[in-house]
Design brief:
alpha+beta, 7-stranded mixed β-sheet
Length: 417
């Protein structure tokens, strides 16, 4: 007997009525799904960083073995150097290298396109997982690490120069897809970088600290993209409001439960600013697949009600697919291998209004427990109900919605298809 349940993903509150099922032998497919669930949970527990792992100096020794750099060749000369530059001149060149790369191939952390003339060949590069004392080896590592076409680097503030210490400091946000067979996605994170300059005006040390733990970075590295947090690779539209761009950068590639308290305060402020602006609504921008990236609880602390009789594993994602007059809500149960889908018609309350908020009613009349993305492999579920939600903001790649008849929670979604 499946117990009565609610499924309110994306603000369409629906009810499951009891459904009697006769006991049946577990099929080979069912046995595999159950085994995969257990194996996946165990694997994730192994990769999830324990509290003792978050050491001040990065990874503990038992995890360091997983971060050894690939064979990068022997240290070699990288050519002539630009000695004698002032700290301000070095900072100016680094600003370009960080975002665009030395020759325009992309920020050097995601492309390896670095101005080697600014660094000593024996420069020491340190981050929470590795130290390498060779410019040529470091550049080789960067060139095989990220896919520049699906990664980004953003400068958070102008570089700072400390003449007394001969140090230049930079703050960046970066993230993207690694060049590994399983194409893991590294969620956007912030870095603080210190460049130490020697008496000849060359950088002899680069020290990088991350806003995420080294163990979290390691976990994401070993998480296939199919099980990673969804992300949008849509480029920034023209005339996108500044606060929308900042919000997109903060939430893209994240799951709702993976934010620091500081990030949540900033996101809440941006949501309020965007809601108060009452931007224009363009119906055609709603059509597509949207992934849940952030959840802001309602006034009474309510969130998305997901009380269904299945485990909510930490690698599951939630989506909504909109057409002109219909919506489908998708809640993963075992990553993309097993999911619950509910859907129905979608209607605007006032079709003459073209500003936010825009109110919608969803009449949910169908549901299913589905293997993979095929509609032919679904077990029907007796799901029905009405959901009311407001479109608080709608852009080309980001939307904000608010649940009206289910607790008042707000969600931030990014368009993934």
């Amino acid at each position: 007997m499946i117990r009565p349940c609610l499924f309110a993903l994306g603000f369409a509150v629906t009810k499951c009525t009891p459904l009697s099922l006769k006991p049946a032998p577990i099929s080979r497919r069912g046995w595999m799904a159950k085994s995969l669930a257990s194996t996946s949970a165990a694997l994730l527990d192994a990769l999830r960083p324990p509290s003792a792992v978050a050491e001040a100096d990065g990874l503990p020794s038992d995890l360091k073995k997983y971060t050894v750099l690939a064979p990068l060749g022997a240290p070699s000369s990288t050519g002539s150097k630009l000695s004698g530059l002032s700290l301000a001149e070095i900072a100016s060149r680094l600003s370009r290298d960080l975002v665009e790369g030395s020759t325009g191939k992309g920020g050097y952390f995601i492309s390896g396109d670095i101005s080697t003339q600014l660094f000593r060949d024996d420069c020491e590069f340190t981050d929470p997982t590795n130290t390498v004392s060779s410019l040529s080896r470091y550049q080789n590592a960067l060139q095989i690490l990220f896919d520049p076409e699906n990664s980004f680097v953003q400068l958070l503030e102008p570089l700072k120069v400390d003449e007394s210490r001969n140090v230049i400091t930079a703050r960046i946000r970066s993230g993207g897809v690694l060049k590994l067979p399983w194409k893991p996605y590294i969620s956007p994170y912030e870095s603080t970088i210190e460049y130490h300059v020697d008496e000849n005006g060359l950088i002899d040390s680069q020290v990088q600290d991350w806003s995420i733990s080294a163990s979290e970075a390691l976990r994401e590295t070993f998480t296939p993209s199919s099980l990673g947090a969804p992300y949008s690779n849509l480029s920034q539209p023209q005339n996108e409001p500044e606060e929308v761009t900042e919000l997109f950068d903060l939430v893209n590639g994240h799951r709702p439960d993976l934010y620091s308290q500081e990030a949540r305060f900033r996101i809440a402020s941006l949501i309020d600013r965007i809601a108060d602006a009452h931007y224009e609504w363009h119906d055609e921008d709603l059509i597509g697949k949207w992934a849940l990236a952030y959840l802001q609880p309602g006034p009474d602390g309510g969130g998305i009600d997901r009380r269904i009789p299945f485990p909510d594993l930490p690698f599951n994602n939630n989506y909504q697919i909109f057409s002109a007059d219909a919506v489908t809500n998708i809640g993963e149960l075992l990553g993309p291998l097993l999911e619950v889908r509910v859907g129905g018609s979608l209607r605007e309350e006032d079709v003459t209004s073209h500003s936010t908020p825009k109110r919608f009613r969803a009449n949910i009349d169908a549901g299913g427990l589905c293997l993979g993305e095929s509609d032919e492999k679904c077990l029907p579920l007796p799901i029905s109900g009405e959901g009311i939600f407001d479109g608080v903001y709608l852009g080309k790649r980001l939307r904000i919605g608010q649940n009206i008849n289910g607790g008042g929670a707000r969600v931030v979604q990014v368009k993934v298809a």
